[in-house]
Fold each of these.
Amino acid sequence: MTASTPILPGTPAVQRHDSHWASAGYVPPWLPPIAVAGALLILVPLISMATRVEWANFGALVTSPSSLAALALSLRTSLAATALCILLGVPMAMVLARVDFPLKSLARTLVLVPLVLPPVVGGLALLYAFGRRGLLGGVMNLLGIDIAFSTTAVVLAQTFVALPFMVLTLESALRSRGARYEGVAATLGARRGYAFRHVTLPLMWPALVAGTVLCFARALGEFGATLTFAGSLEGVTRTVPLEIYLQREVDPDAAVALSLLLIVIALVIVGLAYRRPGSRRAQ
Amino acid sequence: MVLNAKHAIALVVLALGPLTACTAASDAPQNQTVTVFAAASLTDTFTELGKDFEAANPGIKVVFSFAGSADLATQIVEGAPADVFASANEAQMDVVSAESLTAAAPMTFATNILTIIVPSDNPANISSFEDLASADVATVVCAPQVPCGAATVTLEDKFGFDIPAVSEENSVTDVLGKVSSGQSDAGVVYVTDVPRSTDITAIPIEGAEAAINTYPIASLRSSQAADAASAFVDYVTGAEGAEVLTAAGFGTP
C-alpha cells in the first residue's frame, strides 16, 4: 500500500509528491510492536486456515467444474466492476475534490454509505431499485432490459460495494495535493486540458492504482449483495464467495481450499499492481 | 416475654422458610443457563418454547444462538460452548455426532415438507408443481447442497422433471426474499416459512410428503449444565414442544 495515499478522508495525509522513501520520516520505537500485533491479527487466521487445507486434494478441490466456473465468473465480473469503478469513480472523485456545489458534504457522506451498509442490505436496496418491481423496474421493463438473476446484476452489485473505495482514495489524494502543480503548469503556459493530461493525471496515478486494487479486491470478495440481488446459479451468478459458502454446507475442505485460492489470486493481482512503484509517476 | 418468644419463633421460621425451600429445590437444576444452538428455521418456535420452559423450571435460563445448521455444527465441532443442538437436518447432526460430541442419541422432534410460494398476485399463474417445469417461469429453489434443496431434488425425481431454476439459493430465507420482492415468479420453501412473509401466497404441492425433512435434537457431551440440557430436550420432544411446533406448521414424529 502506498503510504502517501490516505484511504479515508481524515487520515493525516503525508505530503509527498514523489518517492523519497529513503528519507522516510521518524518512527517512534514503540510503534513497530503495535504494527506487528496488527499484522498478526491478519496473518494468524490466514495461517490457521492454510493448516486446515488438505493439500493432497488441493488441486482436485479447486479444479472441480463448479470451482472453475465460479473462478472464471468471479474474474470476469470483478474486472468489469473494476472498470466501472474507474469509469464512474474518477469523475466522482474529481468533482468532489474540485467542484463546489451545495450539500457537498452530504454527497461525500452518501458515497460512504455502501461501505457502512451491510452488504445483504445493499443487495436489498439494489433489488428495490433495479428489481423487476423496483423503482426503476418499470422503466427497465419498457426498455426490454431484464437483469434479474443475470451476470449483469452481479457486476452491478460488485460495483455498488466497490465504488466508494475508488472515490475515497482518489478524492483524498486530490484534496491533499491541491492544485498547485497545475497552477505552476499554467504559469509555464500549459493549457488547462494539457495540464490535466500531463500534470493532474500522472499525479493521480498512485491513488488511482490503489483505488483500482481496492475496488478489484472488494469486488472479488463480494458476497452479500450478490446473493441478495443476483441470486446464485453456477456459471451465471455464483461467484467464488458464493461457491465457497455453498461448498461449506457439504464439504468444508473444498470451501477452505477455494478460499485460499481466492486469496492467492488477490495477492498476485495486488502484487502486479504495485510491482514497480513510482515508475509511472510524474517526472 | 411470651410475646417475645413467639416473635423469636416466628422470626426463626421466617428465616428458615426460604432456606428449606432452597434445599428442596436444589434437587432440580438451579441457576443454570442452557445454551441452545438451533437452526434458523426454529427461531420463532424455540423462542416461545424457551420462555415456556423457563416458566416451568424456575432457576433455569435458556439462551439461544440461531443460525444455519451447517454454521452451528461447525461452531460446535470447533468447541463452541453449546449445551443443546437442534439441527434442521440429519446431515449436520451427523457432523456433530461423528465427533462423539452428543451426550445422547439425537431424537427427531419435528418434520417439515415443501410448498410452492408465489408473489401475492401470482404473475405466472402457478397452480401446481408441474407448472414449475416451464422455462418461462422464473423459479428460485434452494441449492441441492442444503437441506431444502435436497428435498426439492427428491420431489423433482418423484415428479420426473427438473425445475429450470434461475437461481439456487443457500437458504430458504434467500428464496423467500426473491419471491416476496417479486423478483422471481415462484419459489420452493418449507411450509413453516410461509408465515414469514405477507407478500407471498403458498400453493401446496400434492405429494410433498415424498420429501420429508426431519429435525433432530441432542444434548451435548461438553455441557456444564447436563441436567438442564436434557430437561430442555425432553421438553421439546414432549407434549409441550409438539403443541408449539404443530401450531407453527411443523409435523411431529
Note: Chain A touches chain B at residues 124, 127-128, 131-133, 148-149, 227-228, 230-234, 237-238, 242, 245-250, 252 (CB under 8 Å).
Amino acid sequence: MYVPDFEYHAPKSVAEACTLLAELGERATVLAGGTDVLHKMKVGKLAPEHLVSLKNLDELREIREEPGRVVIGALASHNQIYTSQLLQRRYLSIPMAAHTMASNQICNLGTVGGNIVNGVPSADLPPILIALNASIHLQSANGDRSMPLEDFFHGAAQTRIEPGEILTEISIPDQATTGSTYLKFGLRRSGALAVAAAAVSVQVAGDTLYGVRIVLASAAPTVLRVAGAERSLVGRRIDDQLLEEAGYLAEQASSPRDSIRGSAEYRRNLVGVLTKRALRKAIDEGHA
Amino acid sequence: MAQEITGKDGVKRYLITLNVNGDAHSVLVKGNAILTNVLREQLDLTGTKKGCELGDCGSCTVLLDGRPVDSCLVLAVEADGREITTIEGVAANGRLDAIQESMINHAAVQCGYCTPGMVLSAKALLTRNPNPSEQEVREAISGNLCRCTGYVHIVEAVMATAQGRVTPDDH
C-alpha cells in the first residue's frame, strides 16, 4: 500500500517541535506511534505535506509520580502503561484498559497521546482517564495550557487541539476515589474495538457512595460522561437496585449509532449492563 | 539524526542505519518508505511477509528493540539506529531455534504465510515469560492471523517449547 510523499522532520526537543509546527501550521501532521496516522495515510484519508515525528522526545515517554499527581507522558505506549508498576500500584484500571486496546504489536507502537488526540469515541484510554479526573497539557510556540481531558472532546473525532499544539502529558490528580474500572465489550477478546464500554470511578465509605464518575465509550459521537446517572448515586446506600437504576439512566443518556459492530439498540442495552457491572466491580474490588 | 541527501531529481532521501539481526545496514530511503518494504526490497529479507498492510494481520511482525511490532506501520526512518530482528535472525549458526523445531514437530505450519510473524511473537513472549499459560500464549499471538486456522497446533508448539518438550532433529 502506498504512503503519499511528505517532508519528514524529527525535532530534537519539544521546543524545537513547537517552533516547527508553528511555521508549518495546518500543513503538518504530528507522528507519534504511527498506528493511526500511517493507517489513515495508507487508506487515503490523510496526506500531510509535512510529518513531524516525536520519536526523539524521550522525555515524553516517562510515567512518574509527583507530589499530588501521577504523570503519564503522551508518548508512553499502551504496553508501557500496561506494564508500568507505578500505574499497576496506583490505578490498576488504567493498565487494564490499555491492555484491551489492540494486539501486542499495536500496543507496542500506539501511544496514549495518539489514543487521545485521534478523538474517536471507541478509544479505550480516555474513558478511564476521565473517570479518574485526568487533565492534559498542551504545548505550542504560543505557550502552554492545561484542561480537563473531559473538555477536550466535542463531537465525532473533534478535539480542541489547535494546529501547532502538541499534547505532552496526562496528569491524574491524587484523589479520594476508592475504586475504578473499565469494562469493554468487543466482538473478540483481543484487539477488537469497543462495541460499547463503561469506565467508572467511585468513592465509597461504609455502604454509601459519596462520589461517582461514569464515562462511556462507543455510546455516542464522542466519549460521554453521564452526569444524570452519577447524580442518582451520590449519597445513596449501595444495593443492586440502585446500580441497576444507574445503568438504566446511563442507557437513556447514550446515543449510539448502528454500525457493523452492533446495532444502536444492542449497544444501548450493553451500556446499561456494563455500567451496572463496572460500578459493582469498582465498589467491590477497588482500582481494578 | 539520519543524514539527509537531496538527489539531482530533487527528492530528499535519508541515510539511515538499520541494525538487523546483529548486522548494521546503511540504507538510503525516502521519508515515506515503510519498514516492511525496506527489509524485503533493499535488504532482501523476504521472510517478513506483507498481508493486510494495515496492522491487522501480523504477517509483517518484526521485533523492534525486542518487542513485536507490525513493520507495515513503521516508517523506515523511524527505525533508524534501532535493533530489528526478522525471522531470518531467529535461527543461529545454521540451527533452528527451539520454537521453530517445535512448530515443525507439531505440524504448526500449513501455508506458512503467518509463520514468520507467529514465531517472532512467540519468541518475544518466551523471552519475557519463559513459563506462559496457554491463555498467555493465545494472547501473545492474537495479533497474528492464521487463515489456515491452524491455531491449535501453533499454541501446542509454543507450549511445548516453553515446557522444554522439543526434541531437535526428530522430524
Note: Chain A touches chain B through 32 residues (CB under 8 Å).
